[in-house]
Amino acid sequence: MAFIEVKNLYKRYDMGETVIMANDNLNFEIERGEFALIIGPSGAGKSTFLNILGGMDRASDGSILIDGKDITKLNERELTTYRRYDMGFVFQFYNLMPNLTALENVELATQIVKDAKDPKKVLEDVGLKDRMDNFPSQLSGGEQQRVSIARAIAKNPKLLMCDEPTGALDYKTGKQILSLLKDLSRSTNTTVIVITHNKAIAPAADRVIEIADSKIRNVTLNKNPESIDNIEW
Ligand SMILES: Nc1ncnc2c1ncn2[C@@H]1O[C@H](COP(=O)(O)OP(=O)(O)OP(=O)(O)O)[C@@H](O)[C@H]1O
Known about the structure:
This protein is α/β, with parallel strands linked by helices. The chain has a single domain, classed as P-loop containing nucleotide triphosphate hydrolases (Rossmann fold), CATH 3.40.50.300. The protein has helices at 46-53, 76-86, 102-110, 119-125, 141-154, 171-188, and strands at 4-15, 18-30, 35-39, 61-66, 69-70, 87-90, 159-163, 191-196, 207-212, 215-221. The strands form 2 sheets. Strands 6-7-8-3-9-10 form a 6-stranded mixed sheet, with helices on both faces. Helix 3 runs parallel beside helix 5 and helix 5 (141-154) packs parallel to helix 6 (171-188). The longest helix is centred in the C-terminal third of the chain and has 18 residues, at 171-188. The chain is globular, with a radius of gyration of 17 Å. It starts with a strand and ends in a 12-residue tail after the last strand. 39% of the residues are buried. The chain binds adenosine-5'-triphosphate (ATP). Adenosine-5'-triphosphate (ATP) is lined by residues 13, 20, 22, 40, 42-48. It comes from Anaerosphaera aminiphila DSM 21120. Residues 4-233 form the ABC transporter domain.
């Protein structure tokens, strides 16, 4: 059994007269520790899927097994626990607390879980050893994204979900952040899922899931993924 199994997953938005089918019978798997991409154009249904996988929204039909547990069957309380302990989130716009330092932002996240990692060690791991006491406004975009990755990873999540994590960053910084995410998946065996428009990154991933018009168009496995450093776009 794969670590993540998406089976016959549907999400419909009932808009009165019309129904919008945002996820239309998705079926795919992701193995533990993979660096996986979900790629597709705007409106394809990527965020809809991520919201369901992340426990922020509910499927209309179908199931998502994570480590054998069907998260579509969880009640509200169980979903809160799932979001808190099992999930790490990284978004395009970092969402850091502006009045807390980098270290305090990470510490805050670790306070709500049981088996958290040492916030200082995690900040060191993402290359911010010397910036822990800075506030977000004193950090570059790339550094702020590193803090948000540290904050997500410090919770020791089963799964790290990243929605357009390089969307607000320049080319070089975006590459560094993607390399960091891929390295983390390797060094911690955390499953990392990145949602992106950027098809050029595909050769660097272990698995590429292409979505278009609410459906899965293609799933590709790369046995020997490229280093992100070797990819140009
Ligand atoms: N809460 C909602 N109510 C109604 N329709 C929605 C809702 N959320 C998303 N949709 C619709 O579902 C479809 C898929 O949207 P979604 O945001 O998942 O796409 P996406 O691939 O993430 O796009 P983008 O890359 O632009 O974020 C779109 O047609 C969108 O308008």
